[in-house]
Backbone:
């Protein structure tokens, strides 16, 4: 196999079309499954629907008893009040937004690179020294919640001089082992024969990583992207960043939402604004994951 063939070989291959097999599920079973899935979707959509309804409520409707789920007199005053509060803040809204986008983008891109680069030898190099111990440490680290690691994390950042800097948010996010764990499990099913054939053609480890591993682990990369971006976007940097001009958007908007019952509607409007970017990223990434898993596949 030539080097030219190596570049084309590892790319995900579109599955050949096959005749649809006749499903053994009855009409009643199909209807029952559809009803069940609709019910699950409705339950999952209730919090989002309640947030939208609350963002459209005037202040007096929050004092009604018994509380009303749906809004009676919808209004956009909560969004207008939120805009007025933001315009009167010490730092401009554009600065907060830039901080969040910059931190989220940098952290997510670096995390995806570190995750896949670390998972490759752990999944495909059996002779790697300490492989079992590293996998055990990665699995064990998943048991520690952020509340447990908060104090040691702060002490480490303080020693490194990263308090009140964006790196105080970025570095702890890069230390998450969830992405490595998921990527190792996904890469373990990729046939080793592909990697061996690439080595026979003279490809080095980094070339194999770029042209063999990365094209075939696109579904898990998109999945990790969804979780990581959501986690970073929601980070407020509390107790880490104190300079107002360095705070991300969630930190600024959370200050608006903590104004008591009088700002309950404004708080819900803030929640909707913070929800938009993760929903957009989820929608785009989910479509790519489904497309990749549908049209690509490799068999040993």
Residues:
């Amino acid at each position: 196999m030539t080097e030219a063939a190596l570049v084309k070989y590892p790319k995900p291959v579109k599955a050949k079309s096959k005749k649809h097999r006749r499903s053994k599920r009855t009409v009643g079973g199909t209807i029952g499954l559809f009803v069940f899935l609709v019910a699950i979707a409705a339950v999952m959509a209730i919090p989002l629907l309640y947030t939208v309804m609350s963002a459209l409520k005037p202040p007096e409707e929050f004092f009604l008893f018994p509380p009303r789920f749906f809004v009676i007199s919808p209004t956009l005053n909560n969004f207008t009040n939120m805009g007025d509060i933001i315009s009167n803040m010490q730092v401009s809204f554009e600065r907060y937004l830039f901080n969040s986008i910059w931190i989220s983008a940098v952290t997510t891109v670096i995390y995806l690179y570190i995750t896949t680069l670390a998972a490759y030898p752990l999944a495909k190099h059996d002779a790697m020294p300490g492989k079992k111990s590293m996998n055990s440490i990665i699995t064990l680290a998943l048991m520690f919640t952020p509340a447990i690691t908060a104090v040691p994390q702060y002490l480490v950042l303080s020693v490194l001089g990263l308090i009140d800097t964006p790196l105080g948010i970025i570095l702890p996010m890069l230390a998450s082992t969830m992405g490595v764990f998921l990527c190792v499990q996904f890469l373990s099913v990729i046939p080793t024969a592909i990697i061996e054939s690439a080595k026979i053609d003279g490809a080095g480890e980094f070339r194999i990583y770029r042209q063999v591993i990365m094209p075939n682990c696109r579904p898990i990369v998109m999945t990790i992207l969804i979780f990581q971006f959501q986690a970073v976007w929601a980070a407020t940097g509390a107790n880490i960043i104190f300079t107002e001009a360095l705070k991300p958007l969630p930190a600024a908007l959370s200050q608006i939402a903590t104004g008591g019952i009088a700002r309950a509607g404004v708080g819900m409007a803030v929640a909707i604004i913070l929800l938009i970017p993760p929903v957009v990223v989820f929608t785009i990434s989910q479509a790519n994951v489904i497309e990749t898993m549908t049209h690509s596949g490799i068999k040993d």
